[in-house]
Design brief:
InterPro entries: Bact_2-comp_sensor_kinase, HATPase_C_sf, Sig_transdc_His_kin_internal, TPR-like_helical_dom_sf, TPR_rpt. By secondary structure, this protein is α+β, with helices and mostly antiparallel strands. The protein contains 23 helices and seven strands.
Length: 655
């Protein structure tokens, strides 16, 4: 039984891919890691590479990554990435037998590659189209695609692509039973090849020609060619190539009835098939060994190899033709040695697989017809698009003429307008100078207004500081009059410290929040001393608030604290406590002053309404100055529960 090498290659490739899956998995993980930090164009390329890696592992993932690469390339207007993604999707669908989608993406890729002037890719696209058309049995379309690829190669001197196209064209001619053209294409592949490994290319072409000789029954010519190739691949230690060669050589010797040499090479092929886990390869060799033993009338050995062949084929899906041949050979062996019961069993099995094969063939024929129909529809759509494009081109030509007429009219109009413009230009210059002066005046006005605002703030602060100092001196006087010398000295020491800080920061309208809080703490200590520590106090600062980043108008909060102590806490009997809280409220800093004193109502009743609080008056003016930086109410005063205290909330803009 002859076993042409080109029928074994797909099986060998499949099992070789299984062996490299673990290496691919590592590459996939590495690519996924790179994807997280890559820039836009690199992301598009990595997504395409992931699609390529998944082709023989998970088709859905392969297509998904290819589509992501395409979308990313469109998003960033990456023309080369778009062409590469379309081409990769075409190959992925072709390698997974979805030929209609493969042709769709390859045909979409073709105009993009032409637009990019990537002639090498155009050549590859036509070459791939030829392969797809060949697989669906549309040999004329396949031939046309290969010839288009060769035209591109000749037009743009792309010699590196030529050998592959000629080699594929040779296979097509062989399938079309045009042997002379096939051989001529193989020779042309050798003539045009200029790659680094010419001997490997020569051996591949020689192997294809040997297969043709074997198919034609020229077993001696095929054998000579196969034997000539063996030393090169033995030196390269390429066991995949050697398995195919040993198997074909053993088959040649079998056809030439040189039994010992046939057995020697078939056993070599069997050893390599076992090493490489090539299940279909083992089945082919077992079949030929059973055939060899049968011709030598070694029926026991023939039965052993026949059973091994059947056993291996059981584990393979499909392969009905191989299974039918295996049972037919078993029938032939058992029938020859008069074991009719087993012969009948294998005859029935062969018939069953023949029926399955016929069904499978019909299904494939229907599928190929469906694919051809889909391809026809796609081609029809492309032609319709071409007609539409031609119509658009006609419209463009008409528009060009209109544009010329409009250009002439526009030129006349521009000439007239230029005359008017020349007269208008002098007036325009004077207007420009006037606008520049107005702009300068506006800018100076804005600067003056900003200076006025800043001066107003400084004046308010200058008025604020004497008021605070006056209150502090009054407290010291009170301690001295009370004959509390120790308290007066402590108060005077703290007051001097406070006064020094106020004077040191006198050139600034505002202080950073940390410095303002330190001033407030010293002030409250002074008030506590003044009132014999009759009240307690605490500060609560939000840990999220950056005390060194934001500024606050100097002593803005102090009058509210003074009010809380003097009018809220001091008139009250019992425990007295004051809490000052600073919070971060987004665009504002929040200061909350809370006491457990008399409350607003009682406090107002106890106040001397004939006396105006100078400190509060100035503070209200400072608050009003801050309203230019915020559209919210900046001060809120409210009673606590049962009028037992007061809470003052002040919002201070950060900017």
């Amino acid at each position: 039984m002859k076993t042409p090498g080109f029928l074994i290659y797909p099986t060998i490739l499949f099992f070789l891919l299984v062996h490299i899956c673990s290496a691919q998995t590592k590459e996939i993980d590495s690519l996924r890691n790179l994807l997280e930090t890559a820039d836009d164009t690199t992301q598009a390329n990595i997504l395409r590479l992931l699609g390529i890696k998944f082709r023989f592992i998970d088709k859905e993932n392969a297509v998904a990554y290819g589509l992501q690469s395409l979308e990313k390339s469109k998003e960033i207007d990456f023309a080369t990435g778009k062409a590469n993604a379309l081409y990769s999707l075409g190959l992925t669908h072709g390698m997974t037998d979805n030929y209609a989608r493969s042709l769709e993406y390859l045909n979409k890729c073709l105009p993009v590659a032409n637009q990019n002037k990537d002639h090498s890719m155009v050549c590859d696209i036509y070459n791939s189209l030829g392969i797809v058309y060949k697989r669906i049995g549309d040999y004329p379309a396949s031939q046309e695609s290969y010839l288009n690829s060769l035209k591109i190669i000749d037009s743009f001197d792309l010699k590196r692509n030529a050998a592959s196209v000629y080699n594929n064209l040779g296979v097509l001619y062989d399938l079309m039973d045009e042997k002379d053209k096939a051989i001529a294409s193989y020779k042309k592949a050798l003539e045009t090849y200029n790659g680094p490994d010419r001997e490997a290319m020569q051996n591949d072409v020689e192997a294809n020609i040997a297969v043709m000789d074997f198919t034609d029954g020229n077993y001696r010519a095929a054998l000579d060619k196969f034997l000539k190739i063996v030393p090169y691949w033995e030196q390269q230690k390429n066991n995949i190539k050697l398995f195919d060669l040993y198997s074909n050589i053993g088959d040649c010797y079998l056809q030439l009835e040189q039994w010992e040499l046939s057995q020697e090479y078939l056993l070599k092929a069997l050893d390599l098939a076992k090493q490489l886990s090539l299940e279909q390869g083992k089945a082919v060799v077992y079949y030929n060994l059973a055939n060899l033993m049968f011709h030598q009338k070694k029926f026991d050995r023939a039965i052993v190899y026949s059973n091994k062949n059947i056993e291996v084929l059981k584990g393979l899906q499909g392969a009905y033709e191989k299974k039918r041949e295996a049972h037919e050979k078993a029938f032939e062996i058992y029938n020859t040695i008069d074991q009719f019961e087993k012969a009948i069993f294998h005859s029935n099995q062969a018939m069953a697989y023949k029926d399955s094969l016929m069904n499978e063939t019909k299904v494939k024929e229907i599928q190929n017809l469906q694919i051809k129909h889909e391809v026809y529809l796609k081609d029809k759509e492309i032609k319709e698009n071409e007609l539409e494009l031609a119509l658009l081109n006609t419209r463009v030509e008409s528009n060009k003429k209109r544009i010329i007429y409009l250009a002439i009219i526009s030129a006349l109009f521009m000439f007239s307008a230029s005359l008017l413009y020349y007269r208008y230009r002098n007036k325009r210059k004077s207007n420009t100078i006037l606008r520049e002066k107005n702009t300068l005046i506006s800018e100076q006005k804005q600067v003056i207004e900003e200076m006025n605002v800043e001066l107003e703030k400084r004046m308010l602060r200058a008025q604020m500081n004497p008021h605070f100092i006056f209150n502090s001196l009054s407290s010291i006087q009170h301690l001295i009059n009370s004959d509390n010398k120790k308290g007066a000295l402590i108060y005077l020491s703290k007051f001097s410290k406070l006064l020094r800080q106020v004077l040191e920061s006198s050139i600034n309208v505002s202080l950073v929040l940390r410095e303002e809080i330190e001033l407030l703490k010293i002030y409250i200590e002074l008030e506590a001393l003044r009132f014999d520590d009759s009240f307690s106090y605490s500060f609560d600062i939000d840990e999220n608030l950056d005390l060194d980043k934001y500024e606050i108008p100097m002593l803005l909060v102090q009058p509210y604290i003074e009010n809380a102590i003097v009018h809220g806490l001091m008139p009250k009997k019992g425990s007295k406590h004051l809490t000052i809280t600073f919070n971060d409220k987004g665009n504002h800093m929040e200061c909350v002053i809370e006491d457990n004193g008399l409350g607003i109502i009682k406090s107002n009743a106890a106040k001397d309404h004939n006396r105006i609080s100078r400190g509060m008056y100035l503070t209200e003016k400072r608050i009003n100055a801050l309203k230019g930086f915020s559209n919210q109410d900046l001060v809120k005063v409210e009673n606590l529960n049962n009028n037992t205290g007061t809470r003052v909330t002040i919002l201070i803009p950060k900017d």
